[in-house]
Specification:
The complex is a heterodimer of chains A (426) and B (251). Chain A is α/β, with parallel strands linked by helices. In chain A, 22% of the residues lie in helices and 37% in strands. Chain A has a ten-stranded mixed β-sheet with strand order 2-1-6-8-10-12-14-16-18-20, with helices on one face. A ten-stranded mixed β-sheet of chain A has the order 3-4-5-7-9-11-13-15-17-19. In chain A, strand 3 and strand 4 form a beta hairpin. In chain B, a hairpin with a 2-residue loop joins strand 11 and strand 12. A six-stranded mixed β-sheet of chain B has the order 6-9-10-3-11-12, sandwiched between helices. The chains are: A alpha/beta (426), B alpha/beta (251).
Chain lengths: 426, 251
């Protein structure tokens, strides 16, 4: 079906401003992705999947300017022993990064996967993204596959002793970054990947994650404090038998963020937990869009998303659990909740279940509410001042999402960032 | 300690007067009990004293050691030494019991200009006091009152009281929902805190709690007023004959 004229024009205008990197072995995948973009068109205001989030500034030819936030504070995970990989405005920085050497894992820049003939990477690039275009179209992810200018390929074959930390720094007010990472976790291997930082004025990031049987990936992300930045991110995860994927995202700022998580449980007994906590103040729009497909027996999936909103901030949650025919004994859980600290903020939620198997347990819930006055009085009656009591209840509200982080040290860092956010708003 | 004079209170949202001139003085170190039929205003009195929203004081005063309670925020009343053991303790998911108590204890100490307790000092004290109330380490770690049985919730209230060391304790139907053993445990907890000039106002429907927490003075409350006061024998009279006789006599 031909695209509407306006959409086609907008798409072509955006494409005209981009140059496909000279990409050797990924060329074919990139060309195919470009064809997908042309076929789908970039997201527009009338698209159902973008009903609650305006994509205009994510697809415009140039990135809207975004001031660089300079707090002189160390990066989020600086206290942890980690392998640091730094990108500045979407460009890998060898000077700022550690040597990419770590036992149990091989890390290469995307541009090197061809000359080094890294088979798994060549075979994975663009594949999970392409799979993830059905049944819902994700044109910004296809755009990413076609035009990504940098990224890393992470091959996990053992159990590295420290996390791999992707740190995205924002330096230019007009930067427009497109990064694409691919991750392969081999059988029984286990790794923690951290992501932090605002990345650019506008950031389009795609990560394709392939977890083999018995593999485990922990993912903890914090999206940076730059208030004016925009981001559209996609994580595509394919999971083998008895594999584990646990992802948590913290968003404390950003004028516009759309985080899509597409998870496909293809092997029996796999476990996928996807969680997020966001706190938004004022001109803040945050969208979590999650699509989990159960295509194997006895798998567990959990979605836990919590949003604290004030001064007119907007939170969006679109979450779906699709249980395919034959995916018996599925255990699916989804909760999305917002705590509205005033009457100006809003939370828009669209939870969905689609089930084609008859022996499954799936539940979902979505709520929106204010601070519990009874609990507030209880705390105050014990001598806790109102502001402290409100903060305690706000953190308590977010706790269920933060508790999805298995590592206590990482969870503590996230909690302290949330406390800082609350303290700044006293 | 606590001096209430001609207290008139109505619900903010409706034109309904609940307390119609309460006069009550609780001396330092004394235990006073308030009994009365449903709807007489007992719980309202406890809420008004602790500063809960939704009530409007139209007349009268309430002072704690000479300080006007009604001008203070709930947290200021707590720091001044007032404590209310709730009839229905509130569940707070996501807030650990221990964290909550330490925050409360230190907030009060800070408000009074005292030094805050270190984590170690606090831990030592709470372990000792929790043990006396048969509250185990697991219960201290769990979120405040979440998944607690009725008895556990009430014991947790008494633990908070023991940790906060208030001067004036109000127990709002602390016996409701308790079996005999749990009631004894709670009463022992309360009795352990008696003395040192600490005063209690025990609100209850039934005399049986007063078998365990022996009051110095018993008040009967009806239709928003204290209608009769006397010694512990007044509670027995209620137990034996109900409120009808007393109320008839007052009328």
């Amino acid at each position: 079906m031909a695209l509407p004229q306006a959409k086609q024009t907008a798409t072509e205008e955006r494409l005209a401003a981009l140059t496909m990197p000279d990409a050797g072995c990924t060329r074919k995948a990139r060309e195919a992705a470009l064809a997908r973009v042309r076929e789908m068109g970039l997201p527009g205001r009338r698209d159902e999947y973008w009903k609650y989030t305006r994509p205009d500034t994510l697809v415009s030819t140039a990135a809207p300017e975004a001031a660089v936030f300079n707090a002189d504070e160390p990066s989020m995970f600086h206290e942890f022993d980690r392998l640091k990989i730094v990108f500045i405005d979407g460009v890998f920085s060898p000077e700022e990064s550690d040597d990419l050497e770590l036992e149990g894992v091989t890390i290469d820049r995307l541009e090197d996967i061809c000359c080094k003939d890294i088979h798994w990477a060549k075979e994975l690039y663009g594949v999970l993204e392409a799979n993830g275009q059905d049944p819902v179209q994700r044109p910004l992810a296809a755009l990413n596959t076609a035009f990504a200018s940098d990224g890393v390929a992470i091959h996990v074959t053992g159990k590295p002793t420290k996390p791999i930390s992707l740190n995205y720094r924002h330096a230019s007010e007009t930067s427009d970054a497109i990064l694409h990472h691919i991750v392969r976790v081999e059988t029984d291997a286990e790794v923690t990947i951290l992501e932090s930082g605002p990345a650019a004025s506008r950031f389009n990031k795609c990560m394709e994650i392939d977890i083999a049987d018995g593999g485990t990936l922990h993912h903890v992300r914090a999206q940076g404090r730059d208030h004016q930045r925009r981001a559209a991110t996609h994580m595509f995860t394919r999971m083998g038998q008895e594999s584990v994927y646990k992802s948590f995202t913290l968003t404390v700022n950003g004028v516009l963020t759309r985080n899509e998580q597409v998870v496909e449980l293809t092997g029996d007994d796999a476990v996928a937990h996807v969680a997020g906590a966001c706190v938004g103040d004022g001109d803040f729009h945050h969208d979590d869009t999650v699509f989990i497909t159960h295509d194997a027996v006895n798998c567990e999936s959990r979605q836990v998303f919590k949003k604290v909103l004030r001064n007119g901030a907007t939170g969006v949650f679109q979450g779906k659990i699709l249980v395919k025919e034959g995916a018996q004994k599925t255990d699916g859980y989804q909760i999305s909740q917002s705590l509205l600290l005033d009457d100006d903020s809003q939370f828009l939620a669209k939870p969905e279940l689609e089930i084609y198997a008859d022996d499954v347990a799936c539940s979902h819930g979505s709520t929106s509410g204010a601070i519990d006055e009874t609990a507030l009085f209880y705390l105050r009656s014990r001598g806790v001042p109102t502001d402290d009591a409100t903060d305690m209840l706000t953190l308590a509200f977010l706790a269920e999402a933060v508790e999805e982080i298995e590592d206590d040290g990482l969870a503590d860092v996230i909690v302290s960032r949330l406390q800082d956010w609350l303290a700044r708003r006293r | 300690m606590l001096e209430i004079k001609d207290l008139h209170v109505r619900l903010e949202e409706e034109e309904k007067e609940i307390l119609k001139g309460v006069d009550l003085t609780v001396e330092a170190g004394k235990v006073h009990a308030i009994m009365g039929p449903n709807g007489s205003g007992k719980s309202t009195l406890s809420y008004v004293l602790s500063g809960r929203d939704g009530y409007e004081v139209t007349e009268g005063s309430a002072q704690l050691e000479g300080e006007d309670l009604l001008d203070l925020e709930p947290e200021e009343r707590a720091a001044a030494g007032l404590f209310l053991a709730f009839q229905y303790p509130v569940e707070i998911p996501g807030v650990g019991n221990m964290t909550f108590l330490r925050t409360a204890v230190n907030a009060q100490r800070k408000a009074r200009g005292e030094e805050e307790l270190s984590a170690a000092e606090f831990l030592k004290i709470i372990r000792e006091r929790a043990k006396a109330l048969k509250i185990d380490a697991e219960m201290l770690k769990r979120p405040v009152n979440v998944g607690f049985s009725g008895g556990e919730k009430k014991r947790n209230e008494i633990l908070q009281m023991a940790m906060l060391e208030p001067k004036m304790c109000i127990l709002d139907e602390t016996d409701s929902g308790l079996d005999v053993d749990a009631m004894k445990l709670v009463a022992e907890g309360v009795n352990a805190l008696r003395g040192e000039g600490r005063s209690f106002l025990v609100i209850t429907h039934y005399q049986r709690l007063l078998d365990h927490i022996k009051p110095d003075v018993v008040h009967i409350m009806a239709d928003g007023r204290i209608v009769k006061s006397g010694g512990p024998e007044l509670a027995l009279e209620v137990e034996n004959n109900g409120y009808a006789d007393i109320l008839a006599e007052v009328d």
